[in-house]
C-alpha cells in the first residue's frame, strides 16, 4: 500500500519550489523506503530547478541525505529495517566492464529504484540524482543505502552523499594526494573546502587555497589551508606565479579545480609542477570549450583527470569517513552553516548564490499516512 508524504518539487524551469503531497509506492524487488532525517541543499538541486540538468520536470529535489530504512522490498539483504544510512547516487552494479576490472567507482550501470514516486494525480516525478530526499520518505534501490555509525549527526554525515565526498575524493582518491605533497585548490565553496580537508587528511604539507573572496579564504584556512591567494585582482598568469612562489618555484604536485570554467582549468594546468596532476571536480556548463597548446600538454607530462563523485566507493568510503568524523578528525560540522526546515529551500538557494553558506541542511521528522 502506498504512503503519502510531504516533499519539495520543482514543477517548471526557474519557478519557485513547491511543498506538496508525494505518493511513495511500496518497494519492489531490490528497493527500500528510507525515512529521511536530514538533506543538504546542494548546487545540483538548484541546477535541477533551473533546468540545467534535464528538462524532465517535475523533479523531486534533494539528494545529500541521511535517514533510516523503514521498509524492505523483496530480496534486499544489504540493509535491515532500522539501519542508519547515508544515501548515494552511484550504487555500483558489480557486473559492468568497470566493476569487473576492479574499478567499481567508474561503474557504467549504476542502480536506481525502478518505480517512480508520483504526485497525487499520478504524475511521475524525476528524483534528483535518483534519490529525491527533500521528502519525509523516499524510495531508492537498496544499493543506494550505505550503513554508517548511528552515533553520527545526520546533518553532518548526510553531506557525504554528494558535495563533501566529491571534494574529499578529488584529493584523496582521484588526485592521490600523499604525505608531504603540495596541493592547490581553486574555488573554496563546499566542494573546494572538502578537497582542502581531504588534502590535509592525506598528509599534504603545503595547501594553497585560491578564491576571489576573503571570507571564503578565511574558512579555507580554518579547514587546513596553509596559504591563501585572493585571485579577484590577479590575472591567470599572476595566479600561477603566486602558486609557484609558495611551492619552491616548482608548482603544486596536485591542483584541484573546484570551479570548472576554462580560465580556472588553465590556471590549474600551469600551476602544477612538471609531471603533476590536475583534477577537475567543478562541473562545466555544456557550452564551455577549452583551448590549450597541445605541445604544452605533451611537454609538461603528468596527469589530467576528472573526478566523478570523488571516485568514491560508498560502501568503503562512507563508513570510514563517518568514523573519522566521530573521532574528531574530519570536521563535517563546520560545513553545516545552518539547519532549516523543509519550507526554507528557496531561501537557502538564494543564500547559496550569495556565498553566505557552505551548506544549508534541511532537518525533518519522517512521517506519512497510508
Automatic annotation (TrEMBL):
Gene Ontology molecular function terms on file: mycothiol-dependent formaldehyde dehydrogenase activity; S-(hydroxymethyl)glutathione dehydrogenase [NAD(P)+] activity; zinc ion binding
EC number, UniProt record: 1.1.1.306
Cofactor(s) in the UniProt record: Zn(2+)
Gene Ontology biological process terms from the UniProt entry: formaldehyde catabolic process
SUPFAM superfamilies: GroES-like, NAD(P)-binding Rossmann-fold domains
CDD domains according to UniProt: Zn_ADH_class_III
Organism lineage string: Bacteria, Bacillati, Actinomycetota, Actinomycetes, Micrococcales
Stated name of the protein: S-(Hydroxymethyl)mycothiol dehydrogenase
Similarity remark: Belongs to the zinc-containing alcohol dehydrogenase family.
Keywords assigned: Metal-binding, NAD, Oxidoreductase, Zinc
Any GO CC annotation of this UniProt entry: cytosol
One family name in Pfam for this protein: ADH_N
Amino acid at each position: 500500500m502506498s504512503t503519502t508524504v510531504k516533499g519539495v518539487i520543482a514543477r517548471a524551469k526557474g519557478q519557485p519550489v513547491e511543498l506538496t503531497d508525494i505518493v511513495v509506492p511500496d518497494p519492489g524487488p531490490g528497493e527500500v523506503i528510507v525515512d529521511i532525517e536530514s538533506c543538504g541543499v546542494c548546487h545540483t538541486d538548484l541546477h535541477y530547478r533551473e533546468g540545467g540538468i534535464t528538462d524532465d520536470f517535475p523533479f523531486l529535489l534533494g539528494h545529500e541525505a541521511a535517514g533510516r530504512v523503514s521498509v524492505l522490498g523483496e530480496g534486499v539483504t544489504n540493509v535491515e529495517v532500522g539501519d542508519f544510512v547515508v544515501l548515494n547516487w552511484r550504487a555500483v552494479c558489480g557486473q559492468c566492464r568497470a566493476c569487473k576490472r576492479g574499478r567499481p567507482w567508474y561503474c557504467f550501470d549504476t542502480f536506481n529504484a525502478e518505480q517512480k514516486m508520483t504526485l497525487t494525480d499520478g504524475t511521475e516525478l524525476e528524483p534528483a540524482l535518483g534519490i529525491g530526499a527533500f521528502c519525509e520518505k523516499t524510495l531508492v534501490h537498496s544499493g543506494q543505502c550505505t550503513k554508517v555509525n548511528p552515533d553520527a549527526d545526520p546533518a553532518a554525515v548526510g553531506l557525504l552523499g554528494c558535495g563533501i565526498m566529491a571534494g574529499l575524493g578529488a584529493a584523496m582518491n582521484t588526485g592521490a594526494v600523499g604525505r608531504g605533497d603540495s596541493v592547490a585548490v581553486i574555488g573554496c565553496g563546499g566542494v573546494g573546502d572538502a578537497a582542502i580537508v581531504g588534502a590535509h587528511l592525506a598528509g599534504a604539507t603545503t595547501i594553497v587555497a585560491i578564491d576571489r573572496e576573503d571570507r571564503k579564504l578565511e574558512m579555507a584556512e580554518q579547514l587546513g589551508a596553509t596559504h591563501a591567494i585572493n585571485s579577484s585582482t590577479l590575472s591567470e598568469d599572476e595566479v600561477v606565479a603566486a602558486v609557484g612562489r609558495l611551492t619552491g618555484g616548482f608548482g603544486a604536485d596536485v591542483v584541484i579545480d573546484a570551479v570548472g570554467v576554462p580560465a580556472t582549468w588553465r590556471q590549474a594546468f600551469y600551476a602544477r609542477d612538471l609531471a603533476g596532476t590536475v583534477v577537475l571536480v567543478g562541473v562545466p556548463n555544456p557550452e564551455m570549450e577549452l583551448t590549450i597548446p597541445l605541445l604544452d600538454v605533451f611537454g609538461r607530462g603528468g596527469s589530467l583527470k576528472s573526478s566523478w563523485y570523488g571516485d568514491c566507493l560508498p560502501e568503503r568510503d562512507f563508513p570510514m569517513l563517518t568514523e573519522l568524523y566521530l573521532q574528531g578528525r574530519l570536521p563535517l560540522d563546520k560545513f553545516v552553516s545552518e539547519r532549516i526546515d523543509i519550507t526554507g529551500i528557496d531561501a537557502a538557494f538564494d543564500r547559496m548564490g550569495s556565498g553566505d553558506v557552505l551548506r544549508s541542511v534541511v532537518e525533518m521528522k519522517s512521517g506519512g499516512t497510508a
